Amino acid sequence: MPRLLAAAGIAIAGIATTLLAPTAAxxxxxxxxxxxYVEVGPALSKVGAAALRAYRxxxxxxxxxxxxxxxxxxxxxxxxxxxxxxxxQKAYDAHAAGANAKALNHKLATTLAxxxxxxxxxxxxxxxxxxxxxxxxxxxHVDVIPPQRDNGVAAVKQLAEDSRKHAGNFx
Length: 171
Prior knowledge:
This protein is α/β, with parallel strands linked by helices. The protein has helices at residues 45-59, 89-96, 99-108, 149-163; strands at residues 3-5, 32-40, 65-73, 79-86, 112-121, 136-138. The longest helix has 15 residues, at 45-59.
């Protein structure tokens, strides 16, 4: 399972992100990106990892699933991030109401330390992933006040483009 590096100030340059609440840009026909944060009890990280791997493998076969990846945090192995790309909102909605999501919710019901949190996004600065070995992802969340939305979008896009030029960056 890819590992997740959580550090302040590091932005992931390859996944979609939004700077505000979802807008009209999240159309029914647009590619949809989801980020789900999952935290199980500290002693249950192996149980959580197994349940999420099974979910990932099954969900990759769902209609409209473009990619589904599960990341496990390095310093807190009981925290996970599920990064998924769906062909559109309808594909995600069908998945969320389907057997794989229900099975995961059932498996994790008694293990969660906090409710899971799924965020839906449209693409901001997306690039194809280059294959790597033992990838480490950096995931962060960016909030921008509404009057600065355009400046925030420009800054994150620039950060993504500049970060792609760094040695060892696979996206």
